[in-house]
Amino acid sequence: MKRLDNILGLALEKLKPLYIVASEDRYILSEFKDKFVENYVDENIRDFNYTYLEDSEDFPVLLKNRANTPPVMSGKRFILARTSGYFTEKQEKDELIVSLFKNYPGTTITVILVDGKLKNTLKTVKAAAEIGEIIEISAPRFAELDKWIAAEFQKRGKKIDQMSVKFLEEMFSNNLQRLESEIEKISIYNYDKDIIDINSIISIVSRDRLYEDSLGF
Questions:
Q1: What angle is formed at CA 33 by the lines to CA 28 and CA 176, rounded to 5 degrees?
Q2: Rounded CA gap, 134 and 74, in Å?
Q3: SS percent in the chain: helix, strand, coil, step 5
Q4: Do 200 and 190 form a contact (C-beta atoms < 8 A)?
Q5: pTM for this structure?
Q6: Domain spans of the chain, in order of start
Q7: Rama region for 142: left / alpha / beta (φ>0; ψ in -120 to 50; rest)
Q8: How is domain 142-215 classified at the CATH fold level?
Q9: Which tens digits make up the pLDDT trace of 184-216?
Q10: Considering 5, 69, 81, 130, which has the largest number of Cβ atoms within 10 A of its Cβ?
Q11: What is the CA radius of gyration of the chain?
């Protein structure tokens, strides 16, 4: 997580031309995508100089074509792409991606989000490492997860004690998407409280768990 924060803290001119960010936690990738766009892609250039690509049969062709398209009235073009097949296993059209990376345009910044575990022996991964940065991220655990939960409450103007943090971890492990949803719910229900304690959480979580059990979840 810290490596992603380090990227988001860079000035635009310090960004590398290519980032491959891989994780088995979809929440991490989605959150990084949103933050990267917010940080670096001005709204007034998004119509012409920003492309978001999702997995498809034509993924390599589209990626190569978009990357080689010059920016319009701007110094940079941005591409955010998401895939689960490429970079995790060998694909028929890998050579198109390798060719792009070996002749990469200086006017494009690309972030490729990979759902899954990278296969580092692939030519695509090796070619990406030569021009950019490869990052593999797991959901936080232990002390790092403690800090993440506390930070999520802090974003909402709340503080949380350590007992409550541990209770949430016991209930939802390090499932960040579920944790974020529960933290949002807890903060809304306790809008008039600055400090969230265990009693503030149990009443809400227990009620929801009873409801889920009644539906057979």
A1: 20
A2: 26
A3: 55, 15, 30
A4: yes
A5: 0.82
A6: 2-137, 142-215
A7: left
A8: Helicase, Ruva Protein; domain 3 (1.10.8)
A9: 999 999 999 999 999 888 878 765 554 454 444
A10: 81
A11: 20
